[in-house]
Design a protein that fits this description.
Blueprint: E1 10-16, E2 22-36, E3 44-51, E4 56-60, E5 65-67
Antiparallel strand pairs: 1-2, 1-5, 2-3, 3-4
Length: about 80
């Protein structure tokens, strides 16, 4: 099952070298969801993530993202 994210989700992003070694990583916020060929066999999703580290938006595939679930404060 493929991971899915929504706009405003807090995520940890990873950028990889060609041989799957992590080049850079950090926290970010999903600001865009791009779906290509929805409902087709070739459907794929990319996410626009605002990277808090560099203050830029990067494009990431689902395998490059992990959801960060913030702790819920006790009442």
């Amino acid at each position: 099952m493929e991971k899915t994210f929504e706009i405003a989700d807090l995520v940890k992003w990873y950028e990889y070298y060609q041989d799957d070694i992590v080049r850079d990583a950090g926290l970010g916020i999903v600001v865009e969801v791009a779906r290509n060929h929805p409902g087709d066999d070739y459907e794929w999703i990319n996410y626009g993530v605002y990277k808090l580290k560099s203050r830029r938006i990067g494009q990431f595939a689902p395998y490059q993202l992990d959801e960060i679930i913030p702790p819920v404060p006790e009442r």
